[in-house]
Amino acid sequence: MPAVDLTNRAVWLSSFSKPLSVVDLPVPNADVGTAVVKILATGVAPYTHLIHLGKLPALNLTPPLVPNPSGIGRIHDVGTDAVRLKKGDLVFIDGLNRVRDDANVALMPGHMTGGHPDAQKLMRGVWRDGSWQQFQKVPLEVCFLLDEKRLCGNADIPLSCGLGHEAEWKDRIEWRSGRQMPPSIRASYLEKHPTDRQMDV
């Protein structure tokens, strides 16, 4: 099978005087101590527009860069020293990176350096870009493995729900939304919720 050329589409802040643009960047490589995460979701802070206009100088942000520090995604690749994280794992990326050899220095890629010269150095280099891109390179220590079955349910068990909800709860949602339930589930549901019997059409 031929190799698939991946693209890394990103939101790009070229300067505080220009609007954001969409660019294609290289997909980063995972080296020792890092992971490359395929971003699935990321947030937008209510003050984001002020950052992109350069109106929050305390953040000491210097474009060009990909904005936004944190997100949720799947591991695309990991460095050779990773022992727990593996390709395909669902992870949360903590936006706060503490410098490995000086815990007093911290930065948030694509968001802020706090003014420390060492943090600014890293922001201009390897930790410049944040999560508004398809593939973000991050330190291993800011990737937190998420319990996917707990959050999203079990794909192997029909009608299972995440976050500890019982399937019956999901059945009720599907019933009220007009979806047809299998007869065995419908009978069990109506035993538990007799007031919904009028919906049995």
From TrEMBL:
Matches recorded under Gene3D superfamilies: Medium-chain alcohol dehydrogenases, catalytic domain
Domain Alcohol dehydrogenase-like N-terminal intervals: 33-145
Pfam families: ADH_N
Top-level taxonomic group: Eukaryota
Alphabetical list of SUPFAM superfamilies matching this protein: GroES-like (SSF50129)
Protein name: Alcohol dehydrogenase-like N-terminal domain-containing protein
Organism per entry: Colletotrichum noveboracense
